Amino acid sequence: TTQLFRLLHNVALYRPWYRRLFAPAPTYSFEIVSRKGMGIQYLIRVPADQAQTVSKTLRGYLPGLQIQETEEYLVKSDSLKPVVREYGLRTHFAKPLEERADFTSHDPIGYLTNGMTQLGSGELMAVQIVARPISPLNDYAWSREVTKLQGKMYRNQLTHPDQHLNATLVGSGFNFFLHLIGSIAGWVGSAVVSVIDHLQGIFTSPAPATAIDQPASPAELELTGRIKGKLEQPLFLASIRTVVQVAPSQRQARIQGLASSFASYTSTQMQGILPQWSFPQPLKRWQFRHRVLSH
Fold it and tell me: What is the Rg, in whole angstroms, of the alpha carbon atoms belonging to the chain?
């Protein structure tokens, strides 16, 4: 899977210079869909002008792979209303999720698909991951954050990761509101503290400075190594969504089942995938149908 995303990352960024400058990198959508009579389907949605290139890349990655075009599956229904939920990371994006090297005894995807079976007529459930490669020209804030963290690692300044990963970048409208309020409060608080410190410095003599360099714990060293490994891989902006279009009596149980299935990705560093408050349902359904990022 890592190699597959690396190939798609290269395909997305290998474009003429004028397109890299004036147009964002193409967006891909990776989806798991369950419908009665259709079973579990795994879909990849790509831009039309890249369909042939991506098809060749996938066949080269998996010889003998059969690729078939399909139509939009999320259609309007008078009796069943689709409910879209959005998910995001619990902490800073640099902290990795739980890695699975052996899928024979524990398959995280199995938790998702097991909760998407036994649907009735006309019912539908899907998981959608919309992803776009991070480009320095189009995603300056994210690229700057990655470069800053990489610089700290190379200077050996990230031995205590939690001291540097105490904030996340803006991910949704509600997160932007909280980020804005927090920034304003931080600026005001910093100004007040600076004034107080200045007044105290006038009437008191400064205490001698002491430097305390505590060694990193084994857990911090492990986390630093995993963060370094993640930042060295091709990075994507991503929005994770689920849609549940079932009978009202089963809707909440199905939504909770999908939410709990993401718990298998929680790492020992407390990185995880949690439901996020975002936009009203009509807008979220529009985002799902058009496969757009929430960032």
Answer: 23
d(CA 249, CA 251): 6
> Which residues make Cβ contacts (< 8 Å) with residue 172, sequence separation at least 6?
86, 88, 276, 277, 278, 279, 294, 295
What's the rounded Cα separation, in Å, for the pair 224 and 32?
32
What letter does residue 237 receive in the DSSP assignment?
E
Helical segments of the chain, H only: 2-13, 17-22, 51-61, 108-114, 140-154, 173-203, 218-231, 248-261, 281-290
Asked if 96 contacts 227 with a C-beta cutoff of 8 angstroms, the reply is yes
CB 39 within 8 A of CB 116: no
Please report how the helices 2-13 and 51-61 are oriented relative to each other, as an axis angle in degrees rounded to 10. 150
Note the pTM of the prediction, 2 decimals: 0.77
CA distance 243 to 122: 14
**DSSP assignment letter at 99:** P
φ, ψ at 229 (rounded to 5°) = -65, -35
CA 1/CA 87 separation, integer angstroms: 21
Instruction: Tell me the per-residue pLDDT of 43-56, one tens digit each, with 9 for 90 and over.
Output: 999 888 888 888 88
Cα angle at 103 between 98 and 104, to 5 degrees? 145
Instruction: Report pLDDT digits (tens) over 88-137.
Output: 998 888 888 887 665 555 677 888 888 899 999 889 999 999 999 887 77
Tokens for 47? 């831009």
Give the CA count within 13 Å in the CB-facing half-sphere of 155: 7
Kindly list the distances between the CA atom of residue 258 and the CA atoms of 116, 146, 171, 292, in Å, as whole numbers in the listed order: 8, 30, 21, 21
